[in-house]
Specification:
Chain A is of the alpha/beta class and 272 residues long. In chain A, 35% of the residues lie in helices and 27% in strands. Chain A is globular. In chain C, helix 2 packs parallel to helix 5. Chain C is globular. The relative contact order of chain C is 0.14. The chains are: A alpha/beta (272), B mainly alpha (306), C alpha/beta (337). Chains in contact: A-B, A-C, B-C. Chains A and C meet through helix 6, helix 7, helix 8 and helix 9 of A and helix 6, helix 7, helix 8 and helix 9 of C.
Chain lengths: 272, 306, 337
């Protein structure tokens, strides 16, 4: 399988203006990363490691200062703003707080429809598609007339996912999508993400600080700290034998839950 | 810290230059010839010309402006058109009266507003809170000059407790300071109350409680420190406004302060007096803001100046 | 009754505690008939999802429930002293002295405009009658005890000058400064970075050993709880549904909610298949119901569950569960063994 997205040597510096001067923060320091079509790459790291900056740089929401991002055959830095906008439908992002992408005054149906205006001309068809999307994420098509605050946190995240899916993307960047959810709700969303990936042949870039979540969902894991990816590998291999000092420290010091009922599940151990 | 002060000083100089330029040209554009005021209504055209030459108002405006700027740079504010005395002396003579008035009003405002605002927030919904709310509503609604006249009528005319006019004793300043301070303290009560209410909900108050500290300790050692931070900045601006407010209050109470000097300057088209007064007010206003900012950064460790 | 009846030498004993917010129709029952014990030197974790009533329970112990809440019933004993009948002011001599508290977000829980030294010494001046100087000297030793390397500098610092982990260590130093018998830690690692979490947890365990404290540890995070707890009580909809020694609970949960919740936590062993998840959502805390609060979501539910609320009963030594069919789960677990 080919690569869905390839980034090479990304650099990004944030300048923060304070009361008495400005400080520069190097958020990305030469990050190269790629995600193969149909796979899930998990990016794990502590807060301030540069995970979210990487996500925004990859999608050119916040273009990198230096470096290249290739999506399929297209280099994002070399195309016009208009073409970039059109290309955007093929890669979408889901945030931790779905409220940030939903207009609180707009019904959720209208919010999702917004993302469809360019692609579907006829209104009734658009409506149908909205209903279909809501059903796809486990909501009822009748929910379309309600506004975001009428929904629970888990439901809002479903709406955020539906909105991202409206554009028929190939790549979904998931930036801490389950971090503020309770365990039981989190499991529902993770299951939804698994199902959608199968149904729609999606590629995921999954960002989280939660080792449990990342290692459950990802085929490969990249460990980020201080603006760099220090180690990357297939999930099982990386968890079993990390080579970098930081990765070892991260795995050892992070309280990770183990379902002790599964601890001796040899079936998993023998998997490639 | 040095660069901070330098930046602020630069900004102050720029402000003064802009304001003084604006005032200078505004005065020259507005109708009214100083010479006519100085000479009186019956003066002949020749007399007027002579006076204009003496005052320098016959020269082109640009020349007047440059001359004035050069003098200003040497801190020479010129002479009053009307009394021919140096403006600097006039201002220094009047300054103590205004400073005393504004200082008293400011102290009154703080002394009333801080305890009332804090208590009002801490004992939310009780009588004291009600008093605080009513005071701030009324205080903001009543204009200072009207309150001044009312105070004069009640305390001087009817009760005779305080002398009516004059500025030779402390007693003369009590009523004007009240008239000036009430509306400002009314605003401040509100700000202190809101700020305290906000701080009451902060988690560190819970921590202080979990340490078993007495309510008083929590209030005075923990809460007040943070609740009064925004008050510093606002109080600085308010003191500036009070200096402006003295113009009217001095008029009501016939106090010979800067405000009256300024006002009579306007009546008399006494350009040097007006210009100097405006510059003076602008400088004081900026300085007060600067002092408030420095105090704020001293009181707030999070933005302490490096 | 719960296990509380047997351990009469408990450090902390909560009996039948109920706390609610508001009145009449809007009355929200946050804590419903909770009973639990914390033994000497025990780390007892109170775990559950948001809204389960963990924090309200924990804060009710030293009388720090929100001003809008009221105690409906129940008793709280610290050793032999009953606390719940005392006023907030009367409980002041317990708070900080015998019961220390650590909170979730150390940045918000420290006073931003007081130097750390002041904040750490305060309780010692208040409760131990130490002079400023003596309290400060002890504060320095405490900061070293919580493994703050540059203790002298920390003493002079303001909170914003310290990292999250340092702030939490300082907050812990503050909470243990008067040698409390009980430490209440309310989500103490939730706001911290992953690697710092582990350090704080081992610090708490070490302090428990060194200072002979019991710790009531509130958390929503099973990973954290697994790393730190001796005993775990699981809360759901305001009540305790299961309580057991940590290992027993994770090996064979006896309440379907615990069982599902543990299964719902993602981890590498569960890769490749969907997670078991708890369907639906927790009941509205304003509702009153006679049956089991988990009834609507429970895979084992039968008629009796809708009518009769199951009491918290000991099904195995030290293992309590509030489920009519706990024994079925036990049998199933032993089969899977």
């Amino acid at each position: 399988m080919g690569d869905c997205i390839v980034a090479e040597d990304l650099w990004k510096t944030h300048v923060r203006r304070g009361v008495f001067g400005r400080t520069r923060v190097e958020a990305l320091r030469g990050v190269s990363v790629s995600v193969q079509k149909g796979r899930t790459l998990g990016i794990v790291g502590e807060s301030g490691a540069g995970k979210s900056t990487l996500a925004r740089a990859l999608l050119y929401l916040d273009p990198p200062d230096r470096g290249t991002v290739r999506f399929g055959e297209v280099e994002l830095g070399s195309i016009s703003a208009r073409r970039l906008r059109r290309l955007r439908s093929r890669f979408q992002i889901v945030f931790q707080d779905p409220n940030s992408s939903l207009n609180p005054r707009l019904s959720i149906g209208a919010s999702i429809e917004e993302a469809l205006v360019d692609r579907i001309r006829s209104r009734p068809e658009r409506r149908d598609r909205v209903g279909q999307l809501l059903a796809q994420v486990g909501l009822s098509p009748d929910d379309r007339t309600r506004v975001p605050h009428e929904f629970s946190g888990g439901q809002r995240q479903r709406i955020g996912i539906a909105r991202a899916l409206a554009a028929n993307p190939e790549l979904l960047v998931l930036d801490e999508p389950v971090s503020s959810l309770d365990v039981s709700i989190q499991a529902q969303i993770l299951n939804l993400l698994l199902d959608l990936k199968d149904q729609l042949d999606l590629t995921y870039l999954f960002i989280s600080h939660d080792l449990n979540v990342v290692s459950f969902l990802s085929d490969d894991i990249a460990v980020m700290t201080e603006g760099c990816i220090v180690e990357r590998g297939p999930t099982e291999q990386l968890l079993r034998s990390p080579t970098e000092a930081y990765t070892r420290k991260l795995f050892e010091d992070t309280p990770v839950f183990h379902d002790t009922r599964l601890r001796y599940n040899e079936q998993w151990r023998s998997k490639p | 810290m040095v660069s901070f002060v330098a930046r602020r000083a630069g900004r102050l100089a720029l402000t003064v230059l802009l304001i003084s330029t604006l005032v200078f040209f505004l005065l020259r554009v507005l109708p009214g010839d100083p010479a006519e005021v100085v000479a009186g209504v019956e003066a002949s055209e020749a007399e007027l010309d002579e006076i204009r030459t003496r005052l320098g108002t016959d020269r082109p405006v640009a020349v007047q402006y440059v001359n004035w700027l050069v003098d200003l740079a040497r801190l020479d504010f010129g002479e009053s058109f009307f009394s021919s005395r140096p403006v600097r002396v006039l201002i220094l003579e009047r300054l103590p009266v205004t400073l005393l008035l504004a200082g008293l009003a400011f102290s009154f405002s703080l002394v009333v507003a801080i305890p009332l605002g804090v208590m009002s927030a801490v004992r939310r919904g009780t009588l004291i809170d009600y008093v605080g709310i009513v005071y701030s509503q009324l205080g903001m609604a009543i204009p200072g000059f009207w309150l001044g006249i009312l105070l004069l009528l009640v305390f001087s005319v009817k009760l005779g407790l305080v002398p009516l006019f004059g500025a030779d004793g402390f007693a003369h300043f009590i009523l004007p300071a009240l008239a000036l301070g009430v509306s400002r303290s009314a605003v401040l009560v509100r700000i202190v109350r809101n700020s305290t209410l906000q701080e009451l909900d902060r988690e560190y108050v819970l921590t202080a409680e979990s340490k078993g500290l007495a309510e008083r300790t929590i209030r005075y050692r923990h809460l007040l420190r943070n609740a009064l931070l925004p008050v510093i900045t606002i109080a600085g601006i308010q003191l500036g406004y009070m200096l402006g407010g003295t113009i009217i209050i001095e008029q009501v109470f016939s106090l010979p302060g800067l405000g009256r000097l300024f006002l009579s300057g306007i009546y008399d088209r006494d350009f040097p007096v007006i210009q100097a007064s405006v510059i003076f007010l602008a400088v004081v206003f900026s300085l007060l803001n600067f002092i408030a900012d420095v105090l704020y950064s001293v009181a707030n460790p999070r933005i302490r100046v490096g | 009754m719960s296990h509380s009846s047997e351990n009469s030498n408990a450090l902390l004993r909560i009996i039948d505690l109920s706390v609610s917010f508001g009145e009449g129709r809007a009355r929200l029952r946050a804590v419903r008939n909770v009973s639990l014990d914390v033994l000497d030197r025990e780390i007892h974790a109170l775990v559950g999802e948001s809204g389960a009533g963990k924090s309200v329970t924990a804060r009710a112990i030293p009388g720090l429930w929100p001003h809008t809440a009221h105690l409906e019933s129940g008793a709280v004993y610290y050793r032999d002293t009953e606390l719940s009948s005392r006023s907030r002011e009367q409980l002041r001599s317990f708070r900080g002295a015998k019961i220390g508290m650590v909170f979730q977000d150390p940045g918000r829980h420290l006073n931003p405009s007081l130097p750390m030294g002041r904040q750490v010494s305060e309780p010692m001046e208040e409760h131990l009658g130490l002079s400023r100087g003596a309290a400060r000297a002890r504060a320095l030793r405490l900061l070293k005890l919580v493994e703050l390397s540059d203790a002298r500098r920390v003493l002079r610092s303001y909170p914003h000058e310290l990292s999250g982990g340092m702030k939490q260590r300082a907050l812990i130093a503050m909470a243990i400064s008067c040698g409390p018998g009980l430490l209440i830690a309310d989500e103490p690692t939730t706001a911290l970075d992953a690697t710092v979490q582990g350090q704080i947890l081992s610090l708490l365990r070490r302090l428990r050993d060194q200072l002979d404290m019991g710790i009531l540890f509130v958390s929503h995070d099973f990973g954290v709880v697994q790393a730190v707890a001796d005993r775990i009580s699981v809360m759901y909809a305001g009540g305790i549904v299961e309580s057991a020694p940590a290992e027993l609970l994770f090996q064979g949960p006896l309440h379907p909610y615990t069982d599902l919740l543990i299964s719902a936590i993602p981890e590498p062993h569960k890769r490749g298949s969907r997670l078991r998840s708890v369907p639906g959502a927790a009941p509205d805390p304003r509702l009153s119901y006679s049956g089991c609060p988990f009834y609507a979501r429970c895979p084992l539910a039968r008629d009796i569950c809708a009518r009769v609320a199951p009491p918290l009963v000991e099904h195995a030594p030290g293992h309590y569960a509030a489920c009519h069919f706990a024994d079925e789960l036990r049998k199933r677990d032993s089969v899977h063994g």
